Amino acid sequence: MTVHFPFSAIVGQDDMKTAMILTAIDPSLGGVLVFGDRGTGKSTAVRALAALLPPMEMVAGCPVNSAKVKDCPDWADVQDKSIVERPTPVVDLPLGVTEDRVTGALDIERALTQGEKAFEPGLLAKANRGYLYIDEVNLLEDHIVDLLLDVAQSGVNAVEREGLSIRHAARFVLVGSGNPEEGELRPQLLDRFGLSVEVRSPDTVAERVEVIRRRDAFEHDTSRFMRKWNGQNTRIRKGIIAAREALTSTKTPDDVLEDCARLSLALGADGLRGELTLLKSARALAAFEGASSVTRSHLRRVAPLALSHRLRRDPLDEAGSSTRVDRTVAETLA
Amino acid sequence: MNSAAWKRALRALSALCVDPAGLKGLTVRARPSPARQVLEDQFPRMPLPLRRIHPDLTDTQLFGGVNVAASLTEGRMVRDKGLSEIPATLVLAMAERASAGLAARLGLVLDGASEHALILLDEGADPEEAAHETLTERLAFHVDLSEVRWNDAKPLMPAPADLDDARMRLSALRLTDTQQETLVTLAAAFGIGSLRAPQIAANAARALAALDGEDAVTDDHLQEATELVYPSRATRMPEVEEPESTPDQPEAQQDDAGETGENTLTDIPQEMLIDAVRAMLPPDFLTRLESRARAKRAATGSGAGLKRVATRRGRPLPPRPGRLDGRARIDVVATLRTAAPWQKLRRQGRPDAPHLIIHPSDIRLKRYEERSDRLVIFAVDASGSAAMARMSEAKGAVEMMLAQAYAKRDQVALIGFRGDGAEILLSPTRSLVQAKKQLSGLPGGGGTPLASGLQAALQMAELGRVRGSSPALAILTDGRANVGLGGTQGRAQAREDAQAMSHAVASQGLKSVVIDTANRPGREGAELAGWLNGDYLPLPRADARTISAATDAALTG
C-alpha cells in the first residue's frame, strides 16, 4: 500500500483543493478536471482525494459495490451478502487500458481452465458509486473516450460481445488531470466534468520553498509527516460529511438562481449544464462553510470553476477563459 | 570544453548511482558513438538491474499481463510480471522516437512507489527532435555527449565500494533551509516553473556530497547540483545585469569540488550561482527555445487522420499470426482454422487432453485499417486586381483534386476572402458536380482580410476534425494583409491579427502550405508560412495543374 501525500499539506492551490472538496461533498456535480503545467502537483492532489472521502456501505461480495442486496446484478452470483463499510472506491484508469479491461470481458482464466463462460468485471464495475481517475486524460485513446462518454451518460455499462450479454450499473465521478500542451480535450468529454481548474506553479519564493520543504519532510520521515497532517485531514473529512448532511437544508434564494442564469447568459456558456453545476457547487460550498443559504459570494467563488471550460474557445483571447469568467462575474454581479 | 562535458556526464552518472530513487535518471543526448559506448559500459554500476527498452514497448511488457503461451500449455493462468513491477534501471534507446503515450506511461512508472530509474539515450539529430518533455522533466540530469571525442572519454567512475559507502552516507545528509531557499530562488530566476526541479537539485546536491564523503552539503555541491540540473530546464535568462562570465570558470570549480573546504561556511551569493548555471547554458540556447516551442506546436497535430493499421476498428485486413499483447483482439475463427488440421496429430501426443489442443503459434489476431478522409481547405485571396486570375486557378485546382478525390478519399472546401470578410464558397465536399455548380460565380476585388480568411479556415478545419477527417490548409495569397479581423482598415492592425490567427492555426497542429501568388514573391508570404509553421511555395504564375500537384505534395509529405 503506497502512502499518498496528505491533502491538507498541499501548499496553496486553493482552487484545486476547493474543487476537490466540492466534488467530494456532492458527487452529482460531475467530477473535476485539473489542467496545468508539469510538476504543479496535479496528480498529487487527485491521489490525495481518496483519503478524504468518507466510507460507504456496500454488499461485501458484490463486484459493482451495490448498496443493497437487491441491487446486485444477477450474473454476479453474490455469495457474501453481508453489508460492510468500505472506503469509497477511487479507481485509476491507466492510459494504455484496453476496452476489455474497462468494460469487463470474458474471464479468460475460467475459460481456459474450466471451460466455463463467465464475465470478468472491468474497471467500470469497480468504480461504480465511486470515482474514476484518469491521469493524462487528453492522451486517452479515442475509442476509450467514446466508451466512457456513453457509460457516463447512461449510468449503465452494457457488454455485448463474445457471446456475453451483461449489463450493470456504472455511475461514477470522473476526475481527470492533464497537461494542455499534450493536446486538447474533446468538448463532449470536457462538458462531462463538472468543475475545471487550471493550476500554475506558485509564484512566490516563500510558497515554493514551503512546497519543497514539505515534500522533503514527507520523503524523509513519512510516518511522522502523516501523523502531523492527520488531524487536518480528519477535520476536512468531517467537514465533508457534515456538509453532505447540510446540503439538503441549505437554502437557495431566488435571486441567486437569477444570478446563475444571468452569469451563464452573459458568458454564452453552452447548454444548461453550466448553470446547474454552478448552482450545485455554490450550494456545496455554502454547506461546507456552514452557511444557511447560498449567497453571491459563494457564487462568485465557484463561477470560474464551474464555467471556464464551457465557454466557446476564442483563439484570439490570450488571457485564458478563467480570466474571462472573472471579468464577466465582476461585471454581472457588480 | 569537451572533456568538461565528459566529466559532467560521469559526475551525473555517479550521483545517479548513489541515489537512483531520488534522482530518477539521466538523459544522454548523443548519436551512437565510442564516447557514448564508454558511458554505457558504466551503466552496470547502477545498483538496480539494467533493462533495455525501446520506443515500441507494449503495455504488456511494461505493466505485465497474461502469458498466453504458458497458460495454454499448462492449462492454468500464468501471468508475466511487467517491467514496472520489478525495480530496475530502464535504458530507453532512441528515446526521441517514444510517443507521448509511452512517455506518460513511463512517467507513471517513475512516479510510482517502486524505485525505478530511467536512462534515456536521445539520438535526435535536430534540436526539434528530442525526447519527450514529460520524461526529461522528471529525470535529474541531461548530458550532451555529441561533442565528446573518444580519447576524452575515460571511464573514471568511483569504485563500487565507494558508491556503496556514499549510499550509506546519503540518508544522514540534509539541506539547510537557506540552501533550499537558494535552490528555489535560482530555479525561479531561470524561469523553471516545475517544482520538481528544485527538489531534484536538492537530491543531487545530497548525492554529490555523499559521493565526496562529506558530512554536510556544502555550497560547492549546491553549485555543482545546479549546474547539472538547471541548464537543460531553463526557459529564460535571469534578469540580472552582470558582466559576461568566462566559460572555464565552472569547469575549474567542478574539478576541485569536494577538495576545498574553505568557502563552505560562507553563503555563496546568488549571482555567483546564476553565473555558474548561465555558463553551462548551450550557446544556441535562445534559438533552441524557439525551436522547442515550434516542435511542441507541431506535435499537437499528431494522430488525427491518415492511414494506419489499427487493431480495433476500420476496414478489416487479413488476420495475422501474433501474440496476445492486450491491444489486439483474437480472431477466433482464424485461430481455430489454423489449429484444426493438427488436432489429430496433437492428440496422439496427448491422448488425455480435453477438447481442442491449441498451440501459441496458432493464434491469429484481428487487424483493421483505419483511415480518415483528408479535408483540403483552400483559402483564396480574392482581393485586388489579380483576384480573377487567382480565383479561377484555385477553382481549377479544386476541380482537379476532386477529380481524384474518389481514389484518394479527399474532401475539398474553398474559402474566399476579400473586402471586409471571408465567405465559404464551397463547403467540404467530394462531389465534383456540386463543386462545379457552386463555383460558377466567383466575386473579386477589395482589400485583403487575411485574418478573417484564416479564421474561417480554422473554424472549418475544427468542424472537419470533429467529423473525423484530417484537415489541411492551402492558402493562396500574396500575404499582404490590409484589413483586420472586424473589417478594420490599416496594415499594422491587419498584420497583427493575421499573425495571431496564424498562431491559433499552428497551435491546432494543422498542416498548411502557403502558395505565394504575388507577381514578385516577397517577404510577406514566407513570413506567413513561418507563423503558420507550414510550407512556403512561391508560384507567381501558377496554373491549376501546378497548384493542385504542389498542394498535394506539400500536404502529403
Draw up the topology in text.
The complex is a heterodimer of chains A (334) and B (557).
Chain A: H1 14-25, E1 32-36, H2 42-49, E2 56-59, E3 83-86, E4 90-92, H3 99-103, E5 104-106, H4 108-113, E6 119-121, H5 123-127, E7 131-135, H6 142-154, E8 156-161, E9 164-169, E10 173-178, H7 187-192, E11 195-199, H8 205-220, H9 222-246, H10 254-267, H11 273-288, H12 296-307, H13 321-332
Parallel strand pairs in A: 1-10, 1-11, 4-7, 7-10
Antiparallel strand pairs in A: 2-3, 5-6, 8-9
Helix pairs in contact in A: 1-9, 1-11, 8-9, 9-11, 10-11, 10-12, 10-13, 11-12, 12-13
Chain B: H1 2-18, H2 20-23, E1 25-29, H3 34-42, E2 50-53, H4 59-63, E3 65-66, H5 68-74, E4 79-80, E5 89-92, H6 100-111, E6 117-122, H7 133-136, E7 141-144, H8 160-170, H9 177-189, H10 196-211, H11 219-229, H12 248-255, H13 270-280, H14 285-299, E8 307-310, E9 315-321, H15 332-339, H16 343-349, E10 364-371, E11 374-381, H17 387-403, H18 405-408, E12 410-418, E13 421-429, H19 432-438, H20 450-466, E14 470-477, H21 491-507, E15 511-516, H22 523-532, E16 535-538, H23 544-556
Helix pairs in contact in B: 1-10, 8-10, 9-10, 10-11, 11-13, 17-23, 20-21
